[in-house]
Specification:
27% strand, 5 helices, two-stranded antiparallel sheet, alpha+beta, globular, 5-stranded mixed β-sheet
């Protein structure tokens, strides 16, 4: 088996009266992301990158916004399902790289917390997760502060049997204990 890469992208509109959740972390802001689920652009992009790397259906096919079961769902559930599919295909994550596009709020102070939350969710050491925050220089919907977006890239490698990259059993990341 050879290594595989996956790329994911997501964008959601910012609206009042919703919490802003990125990588499963609540970020203080006066608006949150509109979506059928929690609208977490980071986890949605990551999910599509994971699924794409193992040639699985995308997040919209697996968790359609027409299904009431996913209304206000915590997007960590989507990532856990994507991880189960990655493991079932015989792979594990080698590394993740993310670019979050936001004019506001400024994300630099939150990057360590976002990285740690992703490390915990993915059962990876934090040094295998890149988190970058960029503005759109006041251009387009993101630049006008109307939306947030995220690009995600993952590299998968053939799996080590029954262990994550920290040496813990897979169930430590919410998995089933299977590779």
């Amino acid at each position: 088996m050879s290594p595989r890469i996956g790329i994911g992208y997501d964008l959601h509109r910012l609206v009042p009266d919703r919490p802003l959740t990125l990588a499963g972390v609540q970020i203080p802001h006066d608006r949150g992301l509109l979506g059928h689920s929690d609208g977490d652009v980071v986890l949605h992009a990551l999910c599509d990158a994971l699924l794409g790397a193992v040639a699985q259906p995308d997040i919209g096919e697996l968790f359609p916004d027409t299904d009431p079961a996913w209304k206000d769902a915590d997007s960590r559930r989507f990532v856990r399902e994507a991880l189960a599919r990655v493991r079932a295909a015989g792979y594990q994550i080698a590394n993740v790289d993310l670019i979050i596009h936001a004019e506001r709020p400024k994300l630099a102070p939150h990057k360590p917390q976002l990285r740690q939350a992703l490390a915990d969710l993915l059962a990876l050491p934090p040094d295998r997760i890149g988190v970058k925050a960029k503005t759109n220089e006041s251009l387009d919907a993101v630049g006008r502060g109307e939306a947030l977006a995220c690009w995600a890239a993952v590299l998968l490698e053939p799996a080590l049997r029954n262990r994550d990259l920290r040496g813990a059993p897979f169930q430590a990341a919410g998995g089933s204990g299977r590779p």
